[in-house]
Amino acid sequence: MQLGSGAAGCENRADIMSEERLKILLIEHDPGFVQALGQMLGTARDLPVDVTAAGDLRAGLQALGGDAFDVVMCDVAVPDGAGLANIILIRAEAPELPIIVAGESDSEAMAVEAVHAGAQDYLVKGQLSPSWLERSIRYAIERQRMDRALQEAEEKYHGVFDHLVEGIFQTSPDGRYLMANLALARIYGYDSPEELMLTLTDISRSLYVKPGRREEFVAAMQKSDVLTGFESQVFRKDGSIIWISENCRAIRDNLGRLLYYEGTVEDTTQRQMVETRLRDSETLYHSLVETLPQNIFRKDLKGRFTFANQHFCRALGRPLEEIVGKTDFDFFPAELAAKYQQDDRQIIATGTPYESVEDHQPPGHEKMYVQVVKTPLYGADGMPVGLQGIFWDITDQRRAEEKLRAAHAQLEQNRKELHEKNQQMEDDLKMARDIQLTLLPQHYPTFRATADQSSTAFQFTHRYLPTGSVGGDFFAVSEISERKAGVFFCDVAGHGVRAALVPAMIRPLVEDLNPCADDPGLFLTRLNSDLCAILKHTGTPMLTTAFYLVADWRTGSMRYANAGHPKPLHLRRHTGAVQSMRSPQGKPQAALGLFEKAVYHSAEMAFAHGDFLFLYTDGLVEVHGKKGELYSPAELARALQKRAQLPAGELLDALLQEVREFSEAGFSDDVCLLGIDYAT
């Protein structure tokens, strides 16, 4: 029932009102009160409204599902209602709408209880006036707006808080966690902050690897109330050890008494590993430099020696102290020294490493041939600071060394190219996996089978486990009509990239076959013909098993065709009986992609309310037990029957877990499961 009211010519409804008329849903069984409330709203000066009246709670909930309202007013005593529990039912249907509850009782406790239940206001029927009613409506809308803004702000805060990379904590002085964010829980290996706080009740004994480390933390905090870069080794939940860095401050009350510590935690394990490797590298470098039989030196930008290893010192017959600060002209013939410095200037100017075979003549020795390698050195600012050189005698082995150097250079180039190709392949596989996952249904069609459109006739649940980055299993669920669902399920032999390409070809073929989607046999026949036409150009057949089903919720019938696929299992939940879906015409038919002119036939069976249909690929049963035996379809049927009353998602997970426990090696092929509940 519609009741129009509101002052004519009103131009403004305050900040919370728009210039359009407010739509109010009044759930009230008393026609007299409905009329009185309409008259009150008619006298409102700045509140033009349209009132829709519903005589009971059920009619009110139906009205909420079919129209948009600004406010809901509900009598707490409507005959088919549940008192203040009506608020919960209304909020479940329209969580964003402000609710005003009206009743005969003038009890403050009743009003408080109504607000706690989710209402914005409680009105006493006998005390209503136009101004009081208008103010209540305005306040209810404003309160709801403020509550929604507060909720959004809290969600935003928690979103930021829980998605920080750094862990955030508060701990008591005696070593208990008072607060932790999700990042800290993940750093320590826990699934949630709650699990962390319940488990780590004594930080001193349970967290730090080094005994007494918590006491060192407390002592440092007592000294300055602020601590930065406090690095420690800690135990994760699984017992593994990581490095962390803590920044913390002490929180005290107005009297200076310690309340708690709060701060942040960063996982520095990788940094510690890098620093350790760097120290080891430096130690190894100096060890190599001093033990290698080559001559190694460094020079500054003016050509002065800044370092020389012991082998170079022995070759010159001078201690290091007499070499540092000197130039080539102090040790070598003038023509060689000039050449060395000219090469050095070229290396520094171009930034290009230098490698050559040169004449060399240490003091008191004959001329010899040396292999020389020089590279520029750079400071932290990226500017050149000198060069480093190494040389060794190759007089007797010049040719052999040149061949070896060429081989090494080629090997390094091959390694680099192989690394780049492997990296490109990994990137391509990752992209292929992401693309393939988008081929699977992201949302299932809804088949509304009840008068109030509140439930769906078919409920779909799936699990997909590729053995590699990409897999060869694929399925699709389509809405043929408002009462018919089409389910296509297939498995390409093998796994990996080659197998994954076929589902990518099949998907557009399946979509193009919509005109014959209602006939399973014709659907697979045409799909096989199209697929064969594509595969024959590749010269390589690809065995593809497939199953196609058309389910009609209104008649409870299932029409299907099978192209060499494992027979789906039909579970009748009411009786617990499980049976496999027989092959059309009583005999198996060939897989897709093998015989271009193959004709597939349809079969039909009944599907009762509460039944469950289970489709799977052969990767689920092609696993071996400890004695080498296969996990048979019969064992799968028994496992399904044993869990007949589980919800679909739990049922699929339980089946996967049973097969995993049966097999020591796990799944060797892609696994795809699909469950269909006939839920009406």
How does this structure look, described?
With 680 residues, this protein is an alpha+beta fold. Helix content is 37%, strand content 26%. It contains 17 helices and 26 strands. The strands form 5 sheets. It has a 6-stranded mixed beta sheet with strand order 1-3-2-4-5-6, with helices on both faces. It has a 5-stranded antiparallel beta sheet with strand order 8-7-11-10-9, with helices on both faces. Strands 13-12-16-15-14 form a 5-stranded antiparallel beta sheet. Helix 2 runs parallel beside helix 3, helix 13 runs parallel beside helix 14 and helix 14 packs across helix 15. The chain starts with a strand and ends with a strand.
